[in-house]
From TrEMBL:
Name assigned to this protein: Acetyl-coenzyme A synthetase
PROSITE patterns named among the record's database cross-references: AMP_BINDING
PANTHER family from the UniProt entry: ACYL-COA SYNTHETASE MEDIUM CHAIN FAMILY MEMBER 3, ACYL-COENZYME A SYNTHETASE
Keywords: ATP-binding, Ligase, Nucleotide-binding
Entries under SUPFAM superfamilies matching the protein: Acetyl-CoA synthetase-like
Domain (AMP-dependent synthetase/ligase): residue spans on this chain: 33-375
Length: 518
């Protein structure tokens, strides 16, 4: 845990990374607590009519049962194990089992459809996926071995834990980019330790007596998995699990009544609450990340929660690198906090030199939560770095130590807290027999930050409708990434080499929004 400190400067000065040569996340989040305090509450599952209390001992036993099945399926060190589950004890146990074996877990989103799942399963090479009955049906076309709760033995003995270290690959998380298929960010066992300083800051020193965590973010994404679930388990802070199709303020009220008092709410969830005039009391901390909040939203948050919302910043490749912390310093609207202890966050120019003006937000090598590499993609890995810095792709400036976010340098769409790559949606639409050309961009939206908008040129003589194309993407990718607007057009702005000029489409989409407001 972070050292006690009364000022941000004192906190950074006192902090030192403590990463041992032997490190396994299964020990951090489960096995160690199961030995020391077996009856301590790990997960409170509110998804059913009757709440289920899962102690660390029960989580440990469940993970051993999963491990037994994985070993019988032939999983060995370095093999990839998919986890296609929503928030649940089995989801946590599947990751723990894979890590204890020295395997690599691959979180998969239950809203993915066939094309999205195929891309990740084929790229990762995962042959076994821990899932549920619904997930087994989703996996049928891929020839992988599903493992459900029904497959688990009554007891699991497990085996000796693998001798892993901080750089041993442990988890492969796919991130959407602007070109090509989603890239897999490969992380070592140090990734959890690397998240802890920022997570603790974002919740005003998480780990105090009575703390309990919850987020509506799915545990298939780094925001749910490593901003909430695994840090909570590692710190001995109970985590609430809820499986709901959509967020609503009533869900937050329910989990708060059950004891949750530390929540991570994506900006879209906050906007939904603001639009409904909802408020919740009894929370000790509210964290948010994914896109910047403005002064108006921060002011509303103080009134709605009686606490200051702490914004944090990071990405799948290197997460939780900066955060606000109202317990240490006043939050500055328009900024995303200050560098977390142990992280050197800078703004650099095209030559990789730090600049005092606006530039590329970057993180210096050596950060605990920094990925090892992009899976099977050395060229993309090399392109992600500029000298000694990992480049985020975001533009910003640092003012009095506070990081001001300016905008995204790439075309990634931020919608409802998700980062959505336009290339994957364009590729999907291009498989429709009636589509000739397509360009996908984010269109500004007051609730979701952006919505996905597709500009489609139909093939000559083809009869297609926007609704048909929306359903095409929904059925193949994911329910959260389909284009909420489809415009059928005669042509698209192109470069001389035939590439769609997304910036032109982006300007057009923005003008449509502004015109509508006018």
């Amino acid at each position: 845990m972070l050292p006690p400190a009364r000022t941000y400067a004192a906190l950074r000065a006192a902090f030192r990374w403590e990463i041992p040569d032997r490190l396994n996340m299964a020990e951090q989040v489960c096995d160690g607590w199961a030995n020391r305090e077996p009856e301590r509450l790990a997960i409170l599952d509110l998804s059913e009519d009757r709440p289920e209390r899962v102690s660390y001992a029960r989580l440990h036993a469940l993970s051993l049962r999963v491990e037994d099945v994985l070993r019988r399926k032939g999983v060995a060190e370095g093999d990839r194990v998919g986890v296609l589950l929503s928030q649940s004890a089995l989801c946590a146990a599947a990751h723990v089992a894979a890590w204890r074996m020295g395997a690599i877990s691959v979180p998969l989103f239950k809203l993915f459809r066939e094309d999205a799942l195929r891309a990740r399963l084929e790229d990762s090479g995962a042959q076994v996926v821990v899932t549920d009955t619904e997930g087994s049906g989703m996996l049928a076309p891929f020839g992988v071995a599903p493992v459900t709760r029904a497959d688990l033995p009554e007891e699991g003995r497990g085996a000796d834990a693998a001798q892993t270290g901080p750089e041993t690959p442990a988890v492969l998380i796919y991130t959407s980019g602007t070109t090509g298929k989603p890239k897999g960010a490969l992380h070592g066992h140090r990734v959890l330790t690397g998240h802890l300083p920022g997570v603790e800051m974002s919740h005003d020193f998480l780990g105090q007596a009575g703390d309990m965590l919850w987020t509506p973010a799915d545990w298939a994404w780094i925001g749910g998995l490593f901003d909430v679930l695994m840090p909570g388990l590692a710190l001995g802070v109970s985590v609430v699990a809820v499986r709901e199709a959509k967020f609503s303020p009533k869900i937050l009220a329910r989990v708060a009544k059950a004891g949750a008092r530390n929540v991570f709410l994506p900006p879209t969830a906050l906007r939904m609450m603001k639009a409904e005039g909802a408020s919740v009391r009894g929370l000790r901390s509210v964290a948010s990340g994914g896109e910047p909040l403005g002064a108006e939203m921060l002011a509303w948050g103080r009134a709605a929660f009686d606490v200051t919302i702490n914004e944090f910043y990071g990405q799948t490749e290197c997460n939780m690198v900066a955060s606000s912390c109202s317990a240490l310093f006043d939050v500055r609207p328009g900024h995303i906090g200050r560098a977390a202890p142990g992280f050197d966050v800078g703004v650099i120019d095209a030559d990789g030199q730090e600049t005092h003006g606006e530039g590329d937000i970057a993180i210096r090598r050596g950060a605990g939560s920094m990925m090892l590499e992009y899976w099977n993609d050395p060229a993309a890995t090399a392109a992600k770095f500029r000298g000694d810095w990992l480049v985020t792709g975001d533009r910003g400036a640092i003012e009095d130590g506070f990081i001001r976010f300016v905008g995204r340098e790439d075309d990634v769409i931020t919608s409802g807290g998700y980062r959505i790559g336009p290339a994957e949606i364009e590729d999907c639409l291009m498989t429709h027999p009636g589509v000739a050309t397509v360009g996908v961009v984010g269109k500004p939206d007051p609730l979701r930050t952006e919505i996905v908008k597709a500009y489609v040129v139909p093939k000559p003589g083809a009869s297609v409708t926007p609704e048909e194309l929306q359903d095409w993407v929904k059925a193949r990718l994911a329910a959260h990434s389909y284009p909420r607007e489809v415009a059928l057009v005669e042509d698209l702005p192109m470069t001389v080499t035939g590439k769609v000029i997304r910036k032109e489409l982006k300007r057009q989409a923005t003008a449509e929004t502004e015109g509508g407001r006018a």
